[in-house]
Amino acid sequence: MDLTIAALLTQDGITNGAIYALLALALVLVFTVTRIIWVPAGEFVAWGTLTLAGLQLGKVPGTVGLLLGMAIVAGAMETWQSVRAAETHRLPRRLLVWSGVPIAIAASIWWLAPMQMPLAVQVALTLAAVTATGPLLYRIAYQPLAEASVLVLLIVSVALHFAMVGFGLWFFGAEGSRTPPFSSASFSVGGVNISVQSLLVVGTSVALIGALGLFFGQTLYGKALRATAVNRAGARLCGISPDFAGALTFALASLLCAFCGVLIGPITTIYYDSGFLVSLKGFVGAIIGGLSSYPIAAAGAWLVGLIESFSSFWASAFKEVIVFTLIIPVLLWRSLTTHHHEEDE
C-alpha cells in the first residue's frame, strides 16, 4: 500500500463514517430522550433513498400510502383519547397536527410526483414524507407504551423493524436504486481526487453534530428534553410534555435518517433491506459514545468508517466481521468502568 491508496481509503472511510455518524446521532438522540433503542432507523435511511429514486422516475412512492394510513390511525387514536379525557375542545388542533399535516404532505407528493420536478424539490418532498412518518410511528407504536421498560420498548422496535422491511419490499420491490449526486464536480489535492459530493456529506455531518451538541448540551430546552427520559413524571410536573418531547425527537431523528438516505444514495446501491446493516454500523458508533455523548458517538462512527475502508483493502471478505467485532472490547470496557446500580423492585 502506497500513500495514494492510503489517501483514497481514508477519503472513503471519512465519507462513509459521516453517514454512520448521522445514524449514530439519530440513535443517541432517540435513546437519550425516550429510552428507545431505535432499531428501525435503517429503514428510514433506505426509504429516503428509494423514495427519492421513485420521485425521479415520476412515480408516487409507496411511502405516500403508508403516510396516509398512519395519519388516519393516529387521528382515530387522538379522537378516542380526547373523548375519553373529555378534551374535545382540543381535538381540532390535534387532528390538524396528526392527520391534517401528513395528509397534506401526501397529497402534495401525489400531485407533484408525475411532474418531474427539479432535484431540490424532489429532495424536499422526500425529506417531508420520511420525516412525517417518524412522529406518526411514535404516536401509534411507542407513545401508548412510553412508561414501559427499556426491554419492552426494544421488543417493539424489533417488531417494527421486521414490519417496515416487509413494507419496504412491498413498496419498492427487490431491485436496488441509486440517485444522482448533488454535484459531480471534483478536484485534486496531492494527486488524490476529492469529490464535492464527499465534502457535502462530511460537511453536513459535522454541522449537524455541532448543532445537536450545542442544543442538547447548552440550551435549557435541550436539557429539559433529555431530562424527560430520566423522570417523565418530574418533567411533566415542570411543564414538559413527554409526548411532545417524544414526537419532536422522532421528527428530528427521522429527518437525520432521511437526509442520510439522500446523501448515501449516490454512493452505493440501496435495496429495501439495506438500511439495517448501515444502521448497525451507526449503532456501533453510538455504543462507543455510550448512547449518550454526541461527539464521542460521531468520532466512533468515523472510526468505524475508517476501519471498514481499510479492512476492505486488506481483508474484504471479513470487513463486516472486523467492524462488528469492534463492539466487543467497547462493551467490556464500559462494563468494567461503569458503576451499576440495582433497580428498585
What's this model, at a glance?
The protein has 345 residues and is mainly α. It is 74% helix and 2% strand. It contains 14 helices and two strands; from the N terminus they run H-H-H-H-H-H-E-E-H-H-H-H-H-H-H-H.
Task: Give the helices and strands, then pairings.
Elements: H1 3-34, H2 41-56, H3 62-84, H4 91-112, H5 119-142, H6 150-172, E1 186-189, E2 192-195, H7 196-218, H8 220-230, H9 232-237, H10 242-264, H11 275-288, H12 294-314, H13 319-325, H14 327-337
Antiparallel strand pairs: 1-2
Helix pairs in contact: 1-7, 1-8, 1-10, 1-11, 1-12, 2-5, 2-6, 2-10, 2-11, 3-4, 3-5, 4-5, 5-10, 7-8, 11-12, 12-13
Structure explained in plain terms:
The protein is mostly helical and about 350 residues long. Helices cover about 75% and strands about 0% of the residues. The protein has a two-stranded antiparallel sheet with strand order 1-2. The radius of gyration is 21 Å and the shape is globular.
The low-confidence parts are: 341-345
Span of the ends, CA to CA: 58 Å
How many domain regions?
1
Rounded mean pLDDT score: 85
SS-derived structural category: mainly alpha
Work out the radius of gyration.
Answer: 21 Å
**Number of helical elements:** 14
Query: How would you write the strand order of the largest sheet?
Result: 1-2
Order of SSEs, N→C?
Answer: HHHHHHEEHHHHHHHH
In terms of DSSP E residues, the strand content is under 5%
Task: Work out the number of β strands.
Answer: 2
Helix content: over 70%
Could you say which overall geometry the principal axes of the C-alpha atoms support? globular
The biggest beta sheet is recorded as:
2 strands, antiparallel
